[in-house]
Structure formats: C-alpha cells, structure tokens
From TrEMBL:
One of its GO terms (cellular component) is membrane. This is Immune-related protein 2. It holds the Pfam family Reeler. The lineage of its organism: Eukaryota, Metazoa, Ecdysozoa, Arthropoda, Hexapoda. PANTHER family: CELL WALL INTEGRITY AND STRESS RESPONSE COMPONENT 4-LIKE-RELATED, CYTOCHROME B561/FERRIC REDUCTASE TRANSMEMBRANE. The keyword Signal applies. The keyword Secreted applies. InterPro entries: Ferric-chelate_Red/DefProt, Reeler_dom, Reeler_sf. It is found in: Secreted. It comes from Danaus plexippus plexippus. Residues 72-92 are annotated as: Disordered. Belongs to the insect defense protein family.
Length: 212
C-alpha cells in the first residue's frame, strides 16, 4: 500500500494498493518518481560522506606513512605541504649512553617523549660533526617502527616506516657507531613529528666527544 500526498495544500494523503513494478506495465506515478529520486539522493549523500572520510584518513596518515624523503637529508625539514615547524620548546629529548666515546666504538641513542602524550609518529635522526653526517646506526631486530636511510651511506640516517597509530612510540633506542678515524665532537639531532602539521626540527642531544 502506498501513500502519495496531493499537490493541493491541506489535502489528505490518498492510499491505494499497487501491484509490484515487475507485474505492471504502466509508467511510474509522480509520487513514485519523487520517492525514487529522494532515495537516490540519500544513497549519494551516504557515499559522498564515506568518500570524504576515507580521504581525511589518507591525508592524516600520509604525513608519517613512508618515512622522510631524501630531499630532507641536509635540512631535516619534512615536506608537509605548507606546514611550518613548531616554535615552542620540543616535548622530546635525545640522550646518549656516554659523553665520551672512542673512535670506532658504539653507544646507545635514546629518543623519548617527555610525557605519554608526546608520541613519536615520524622521525629523521642523524649524528653530525659540524655539518657532516657521520657514523652509522643499527636497529634493534625487533624494531617495527624504524628503518635505515641513505643520506650518503646506508645507515647514516634513521627514519620511520609506514605504520598506523597503534605503532606510535614514546621511546626509541638505537645503536650508533663512530667512524674509526673521527676526532671531533658530535651531536645527535632529529626532526620529530607528532602528526603531519605538528613537528619539531633541531631536537638535539648534548655533545659527545669522539676520541682517537
């Protein structure tokens, strides 16, 4: 049974029994046409909302999905469209296991958010003597977050892998080995991203003296 309101204002709905469309040869009534159009519009809006939601999720995750680009090797600046680095003090710290190290030896490097809310979703980490990228990093075998990067030599830089929010970290730890012939002070520095639009550059450790 269907109801179709009359075009006249104030008129009561007229009810009538209709055969299924498959058993009828007459064209759609005005009421049936309007109902079909309304249904199609409703379905279209549902698909549009779903599509917009998917795009938003993709845009959000793209900022930390594949790691830093090679174009960031020198300035450690993420290529996140028009987003600028934060100017507030970084809520992250980089520490080393020693303050003096013999050339060719290794030390532990820890990157940590200062509170549980300060998660690491993206990172680009290097050790430098002046402007030179030096030494090599080694990953823990169970590290599913990080990957080695080549900014001159494979392993001289660390960045993140593609991951979802469940793999965000508050603390990351790596092993760094000094070059065998280095006699200088080094600083471990990083760009750390909380998300695509919120990131800090020039997060640094205290200097470490490398001795021959």
């Amino acid at each position: 049974m269907t109801a179709c309101p009359s075009k006249a204002l104030g008129a009561k709905a007229i009810y009538s029994f209709k055969l299924p469309r498959s058993l009828r040869s007459d064209p759609l009534t005005h009421c049936e046409t309007c109902a079909a159009v309304r249904f199609e519009l409703k379905v279209s809006k549902m698909f549009f909302s779903f599509f917009v939601t998917i795009l938003a999720v993709v845009a959000y995750t793209e900022g930390f999905s594949h790691g830093a680009p090679e174009s960031a090797c020198r300035d450690l600046m993420p290529r996140h469209q028009d987003h600028k680095p934060q100017t507030s003090p970084p809520p992250y710290a980089i520490t080393t296991s020693v303050r003096e190290l013999k050339a060719g030896d290794s030390m532990r490097v820890t990157v940590e958010g200062k509170t549980p809310a300060n998660l690491i979703r993206g990172i680009m980490l290097q050790a430098r003597a002046g402007d030179d990228i030096v030494g090599l990093f080694k990953l823990d075998p169970n590290d599913s977050f990080s990957q080695l990067m080549n900014c001159g030599v494979l392993g001289d830089t660390i960045t993140h892998k593609k991951h979802d929010n469940s793999q965000d970290k508050q603390t990351l730890t790596y092993t760094w080995t000094a070059p065998a012939n280095l006699n200088d002070k080094i600083v471990v520095g990083a760009t750390i991203a909380l998300n695509k639009s919120t990131f800090w550059v020039d997060v640094k450790s205290a200097p470490v003296k490398i001795m021959p």
